[in-house]
Amino acid sequence: MSLRAFLGDPALKAETLNRVRQAWDTRQIIPLIYLKWSNGAGVASLAGTIAQTQDPALFVARTGLPLELALLCEMLVNTGITFQDDETAPRGFIMTADERIWSFGLEWLEAIAVDADVGDVVARFLPVFLTQILSDEFPLAANIDPAVKSVARDILQLWECERRGEPVPSRAWRTIRANALLVSEGSRDPAGYAAADLVESLAWPCAGIAVEGPVISQKFLQSCLQVLAAPFLSPQDQIDWAKGLAAQRELRRIRSEAPSADLSDEALLDRHPEIKQAMLAPQQPAAAARMDAAKQKARSALLPFLLQQMDGLLNLLRQTSDRPVSP
Fold it and tell me: Is 73 in the same domain as 147?
């Protein structure tokens, strides 16, 4: 379906930007990872404020923008923000971030030309995202298993074929998915689990998973933030965190086996109390609070990568906005 940004109406773009800027500059908007809107003094996300709705279909109808694009941009902002409890603040917390993170909250919207079709931007962004994760500049590059990198490059090759309009047989994707699962299961470094899981999630045609792009990217970035935060934890917390990650992967492996496929997580964990114990330890309130505090200290290490992703999206949006509009 072809989309027309701002419904082809310059006045709508101007009104939207002015309205959102007022709320954004006064920090009335809370960057979230889902669509949230409230007419009163309740919580409103960036995407929810843009369209004044929390109905996904209405968002597209009112803006001419794909919801996954708005959520992806908002997710990047959310990842760069530290939320700190503050009893004196109106909402009970304050938000702090690098000024470049805050600026991106409106820059991506400003970069979209009226009447542009930006429906394919997320699909075009995913190869950029994966390529930069494979670069030496990525903060966890040394922790990515070489076998995981190899499968990631295979994914990029097929995506490039798709971009050129070349047919990609379904068996090629089946082979890559099988390889992705194999290397993911073989990953043994907790610091490398995030990349292994990401590659497993991305082993599909690019256009087909674009709508899941914000969720996939958010899960990956939050996992990376935990890895970067781990050195700020106590030795015991680090052990519990690593055991919890390993237990989650073991639970997933057990679920993939026929006898366990139809059981709920609760039923599976009751059958495997050692896995349950390992998973629950880092989720205890005190342990979770210590992880949150460690993530605040580690967030700056992820900042250059976040800014790189924001620049990549801005470049794609500007390229798209420069393309001639189809009649």
Answer: no
Q: Does residue 202 sit within a domain?
A: yes
pLDDT tens, position by position, for the chain (327 residues)? 689 999 999 999 999 999 999 999 999 999 999 999 988 767 899 999 999 999 999 999 999 999 999 999 999 999 999 998 898 988 889 999 999 999 999 999 999 999 999 999 999 999 999 999 999 999 999 999 999 999 999 999 999 999 999 999 999 999 999 999 999 988 889 999 999 999 999 999 999 999 999 999 999 999 999 999 999 999 999 999 999 999 998 888 888 776 777 788 888 888 899 999 999 999 999 999 999 999 999 999 999 999 999 999 999 999 986 765 555
Predicted TM-score of the model (pTM): 0.93
Residues 99 and 157 in one domain: no
- In this structure, the answer to whether residues 203 and 269 fall within a common structural domain is yes
Per-residue tokens: 147? 């076998």
Q: Residue 116 domain-assigned?
A: no
The answer to whether residues 146 and 202 belong to one domain is yes
Looking at the fold, whether 38 and 150 belong to one and the same domain comes out as no
Q: Which domain holds residue 158?
A: 121-322
Residue where a domain stops, chosen among 91, 110, 129: 110
